Amino acid sequence: MFKRGKGKYNSAYTIDNYYDWYCATVSDPLPKEVFRGVFRAYIERIMVEVIYNSFEFNIGQRMGSIRVRDKDYDIVLDENGNVDKTRLAPNWGKTLKKWKVIYKDIPPAEWKNIPNKPMIYHENDHTDQTIKQWFWDKLTCNLQNQGWYKFNATRSWDRLLASVNKESNITYYK
Are residues 58 and 135 in the same domain? Predict the structure, then answer.
């Protein structure tokens, strides 16, 4: 039906680059499979602490810290008193289910040609109108041109953060 496109932010460095650097700096390196396992376990432990315990991970080397923050999700009204929907995030799961019911005789490939389709938006009632988002705090960062850099968690960590906050409303820093 619909497929995701190529990623917008693709990393220039992978775990293989870190392993090559590791092999160049250590006299007796671990095998690649062991290194990958240790690296993944380390990252997983950090991310679980950040998500479940509101932990702020200090990257080190004066690179700042990574955490999850609460951002208020203000619902804004336009001049007619209606909700300004340009500021709302679409709930694509519920929207596509609704379109399947409404446009059952039209193939999904032709849905994009239909004007003014009804949309369903997230209102975040379960989190008291707050959005949980990843945040790289660069206040103590000493990196040149730091405004050009961005932290983007992988999709699996985004999904874990969303599922944890649906089950229990954890309070994070603002």
Answer: yes
Please state whether the predicted TM-score (pTM) of the whole model is above 0.85.
no
Q: Is residue 143 part of a domain?
A: yes
Q: Which long-range contacts (CB under 8 A, 24 or more apart) does 44-53 make?
A: 47/153, 47/157, 47/160, 51/157, 51/160, 51/161, 51/164, 51/170, 52/164, 52/170
How confident is the model over 101-117, as a mean pLDDT?
A: 88
**Number of domains the chain is built from:** 2
Handedness of CA 33, 39, 42, 45 (dihedral sign): negative
Confidence tier at 2 by pLDDT (50, 70, 90): low
Q: Is residue 173 part of a domain?
A: no
- Beta-carbon contacts of 111 under 8 Å, excluding residues fewer than 6 positions away, are 99, 103, 117
Q: Do 40 and 115 share a domain, yes or no? A: no
Going through the chain in order, the beta strands assigned E by DSSP cover 57-58, 65-72, 130-137
Domain span at 106: 77-123
Whether 132 contacts 165, CB under 8 Å? yes
Q: Which two tokens stand for residue 63?
A: 């690179």
